[in-house]
Amino acid sequence: MAPVSDSRPLQITALAGGVGGARFLRGLLAHLRSAEDPARRDARVTVVVNTADDVTLHGLRISPDLDSVMYTLGGGIDEARGWGRAQESYGVAGELAAHGEGPSWFTLGDKDIATHVIRTRMLAEGATLSEVTARLCERWQPGARLLPMTDDRVETHVDLADGPGGATRRVHFQEWWVRLHAAVPAVRIEAVGAAASRPAPGVLEALREADVVVLPPSNPVVSIGTVLQVPGIRDALVAAPAPVVGVSPVVAGAPVRGMADACLSAIGVPTTAAAVAGLYDDFLDGWLIAEEDEPPRRPGLVVRRRPLLMSSPRATADLAGAALDLALELDRKEPAA
Ligand code: GDP
Ligand code: CA
């Protein structure tokens, strides 16, 4: 690993899901842009984004997490919701409903549909999801390189035990999450296609060549967890010379937003900051938790207490800065190569 004490721009690689990842990354970019240290100010950020939430609706291929990150970093996000486009209209959705074409539970705004039309057309013409993402980012200029975790099709499906006579039935993750609000317990969560998938071009290199790897407070099961299931990514994190630092998505024993507790209980893991860190035991070097949470007790893991709520742009930038501070501090402790 190259030393980071000189003014060579830092290479930062992050893994991310949708809303939680996007907000954190926006804070990271804000922190970097306002930094005094040129190594931070000129840092390059690569984001490996979860694509297992992807779904086909009305024939359109939708990549919710890539779009949340792209819109948030590119200034087009609906701030209140944290997903979808700002100043959206729903003309197309209204027409589809008038035709009796469901599903009605997945919101598709008119502006957002343009993104899905371009993606679907390009994929049909033989482009990869990486190429589609690069094309869409020409407009959005997110200020970071966005890479899908894989160009292969991976979809999270969920087994629910509410079928007839207690039988399980399988639904797409989006149906469980958006339609059912994860209120029906999941017996199993499976990233279908993950085992046979390959990391998208640039993903392994971005982990190998990073000075710092960051895990934003994304969902540990259906965001970070699915990225880690793409063969090669977890091994690359274990082998990465860079320190790997994460931010707990669990604060005071609960997810800050959304239903990550329902995902964690489906895999038999308690909703605690310590248990989430345990999911990353083989590669995590530093972990930020909130004041009120119990630290994980694993030798070698450095834990810091910091305010973890991304309640304002300033608070989010400070949180990202704290993650980077911890990573650079750990880096300096390592024996010189
Ligand atoms: P999704 O794909 O849209 O669900 O987004 P992510 O997987 O990237 O992030 C979802 C996670 O972000 C949830 O599990 C929340 O616990 C976490 N989260 C949301 N807001 C905050 C916050 O302000 N602070 C922290 N620490 N975590 C947050
Ligand atoms: Ca997601």
TrEMBL record:
Which controlled-vocabulary keywords does the entry list?
Magnesium, Transferase
Which SUPFAM superfamilies does the record match to this protein?
Answer: CofD-like (SSF142338)
Q: Offer one Pfam family short name for this entry.
A: CofD
Provide the leader sequence positions: none
Q: Does the keyword Transferase apply?
A: yes
Using the record for this protein, list the coiled-coil segments as residue ranges, or answer none.
none
One MF annotation (Gene Ontology) recorded for this entry? magnesium ion binding
Specify whether Magnesium is a keyword of the entry.
yes
Recorded protein name is LPPG domain containing protein
Task: Record the organism.
Answer: Kineococcus radiotolerans (strain ATCC BAA-149 / DSM 14245 / SRS30216)
